[in-house]
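Can't attach files on this board, so I'm pasting raw text. These are the components:
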Amino acid sequence: MRTAPTIERLRWWHYLTRHVDGFLLSGILLLMLTGLATLYSATDANLGRVTNQAVNMLVALGIMWLVAYIPLQHIMRIALPLYVIGLILLLGVALFGEINNGARRWLNIGVTRIQPSELMKVAVPLMMAWYFDKHETTLRLRDYAIATALLLIPVVLILRQPDLGTALLITASGFYVLFLTGLSWRIMAALLVAGAVSLPILWSMMHDYQRRRVMTLLDPTQDALGAGYHTIQSTIAVGSGGILGKGWRKGTQTHLDFLPERSTDFIFAVFSEEFGLIGNSLLLLLYLIVIARGLMIAANASTQFTRLIAGSITLTFSTYIFVNIGMVIGILPVVGVPLPLISYGGTSMVTMLLGFGILMSIRTHPKLVKT
Amino acid sequence: MKRRVELRNHPRELRFFHMRLGIGAGFVLLLFLLLFSRFFYLQVSQRDHYHTLAEANRISIAPIVPNRGLIFDRNGEVLAHNYSAYTLEIVPNRTANLEALIDELSTIVEIGARDRKRFRKLMDESKRFESLPIRTRLSDVEVARFAANRYRFPGVEIKARLFRQYPKGEIASHVVGYIGRINDRDLEQLEAGKNLANYRGSLYMGKIGIEQSYEQELHGITGFEEMETDAAGRIIRVISRTPPVSGNDLTLSLDIRLQEVAEKAFGDRRGALVAIDPATGDVLAFVSKPGFDPNLFVDGIDSENWDLLNNSIDRPLNNRALRGLYPPGSTFKPFMALAGLELKKRTPRQEISDTGYFSLPGSSHRFRDWKAGGHGYVDLHKSLVVSCDTYYYGLAHDLGIDSIFNFVSQFGLGKKTGIDIEGEAGGLLPSQEWKMKRYKQKWYAGDTISVGIGQGYNLATPLQLAFATAILASGGTAFRPHLVKRIRNSKDDDIQEITAQPLYTLDLDPVNLEHIRNALVAVTQPGGTAALAGAGAAYTFAGKTGTSQVIGMKQGEKYVENKIQERHRDHALFVAYAPAQAPRIALAVLVENSGHGGAAAAPVARLVMDYHLLGRLPAEQVANSIPEDENGAYD
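---
Top answer:
Structure tokens for the assembled complex are below.
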């Protein structure tokens, strides 16, 4: 009599949280709250923007929850179609895409506008992991070549849009798959040399604004009011934050408009100015906890596919963090990479949580037994 | 087959994967450590640097230019003041086609040829990013019309500025001077004087005259406004405001009405006049003719007017009273006479016989008197009244150059008076030492002779002659001539009087001074060389005429005035003080190329003295003008 409703309730709770990894979720929620607080300051207490972002987060969390329920066999099954659709859409962008700020990134599909390169962030590692899983037993150099081609085709299309940041991150996620499958160091060294050799070619293919960004990295002051302005102002914001920071909503760089794009790509400068070195350290720690959990999930995954995908997702997540913070503090060029879970924007939030959903699914679904 | 391979490879593969994952984790840790070390560098090591940058970002400092001090004459009449007006300004490097822009502007606001020329000259002198006025003193209608059209003119702005104005125009222009735009040379000087900070935001500074020499008093202290600005430069709020301190107001010793009388008396003639109160050193009038309109310089003079002033044969920009060097001529004689008495080389009664020339013993060279045949028997009194040259040739010979130099230099000749405007010339009182230095030659006895009548190497400025006359008038007490009488501190209204401290007092025998004074009074009375100018004076005054040679005469050549080009004629000189017994004014007058001191220069002095002592001008016919030329006049 007394225990029945409790059991009833517990069962209900059990169904709801069966595929949720509590550890990972806590880290994600803490980061999201940090993001909302920072956004509140960055937008000068614009509750509309904050609410909007909270909704983005809820939607993304919902998607994560749903994905976590999908068994990996199903995810594996959609890897190829997802990749093919993504590729078709990318071609569509190249042919019929809308031009915005000099870049062709969006495709209008009637109901809404979509950014297929965002889809590829998930589709490419899935596809590569799927491929390696299929050829798990007979890995040859040929397989690596095919996998590399699977990676490079969308990357080149995205580079042409141009979207340097996304291309870079997709390359990274694909590379992690290759790396984790056991690509020999010798081949990696060869790729590195090939990359170094192709740099001048890449340079000639780059758009002016991209070249400027690279040049600006080498010496931000040479274009202090142009491309270097972002980096100079964000570095000042971070540096002037000191150890303790200027206090929440008290950053002068932020609130007097000196920081550009301070709710999106440069939100870390706001955080850093207001919370200082201590805040930065705690934030890095929080990210490290999430990363550690992701790597743990990868280590314990049972199949080649799940191992590769979990490892790639986690390492790519780390790359996002490094590239974003690196550009804010002036050690990397300004590429459009958001700070995961903190930068304003729905798309990247969804992409990110989609990945975490996959991680949770890997963690919580019964291990596949090979037959 | 397939299963076997799988069984064999699985554990190895897993180990391999874990190793790779470990390497990945290490890599991530490494990257995060890199981030942390960069945080540490920025936020701990370099924190102060970035803090300063953030503050500099946030706070901008705008200078507030102080109001320039005003200049008044001794009676409180305004000689220089400021008024606020709108100007239309262009930043040249923000416009692509300047000519087209000005053409289009002129459809809205009247822009004359003079404005364009002035703008062009300003552009040559300024930097391309400076805001330069194309039109000043816009009317309200013009301001409104431009405001409605301003979107059409990027780089063009209306600004409210304070302008300097000199309401008296040309009168006393050489004294008051003018301000002009600060140029590179001024900036260098300001920097050398550590004054640059106080001139942030200042566009003008004094260039000449009182405006220049009292620049420090007049400029004031620049104020600052600390403002918090956003990235677009919009002012969010004012953090602090340090108000500017206006420049100090100056009251001159100059009497502008006396000055006006004096300048009018010159008519179209070139010349100079300096009148000093012998009891204080107050400069009462300071004339250099022709003058110029200082208002032309204030917002940048246009090239046409500049050429006109700069290339004029009359040299209106030359301050003759301050810098013009002229042989003092016979105005030198009273000092020679006093030297003769004081150094006991002559007694008042001692006479010479003047046969029209003087020769050194054993020489046939004749130093001629201005009057052929001479003046007959001449004592000290007569020597001054008729301005006998022969008397002074002999006296100079008896005194010797060293005594002359030592005695006369006590009256300030041969050195700067130290008046409070810049650029004074020092004049020249010759000495043995000077000649050795200048010509590497010893002094000859013959050199001394012409020095005795104020010719030879002698050179003096009108200011020096007035100063020497003032010392003579006061019986030997020297006051430094000064133009500024009072400085009112605008901060605390504290008034600083430039008090008359005697520089020194000469130990002169009053009896000797009496002899000189009596003779100089006689000069202005019937029989004297300035009898015409002295006629009908309501007071007695002492004076001495003089002629300053422009070209030298050869031995035996006769000076025939109308044969000589106007510009080569002698300059007329007159020094005087009045009233003779208790002098209140001492002056020196120079009229260029008009011959005789008694005829051309003395009447000007009479007008000035009458106005100063009586407050009115002499009878109409005298006031009219200077008589042009009078034949057979005196020296």
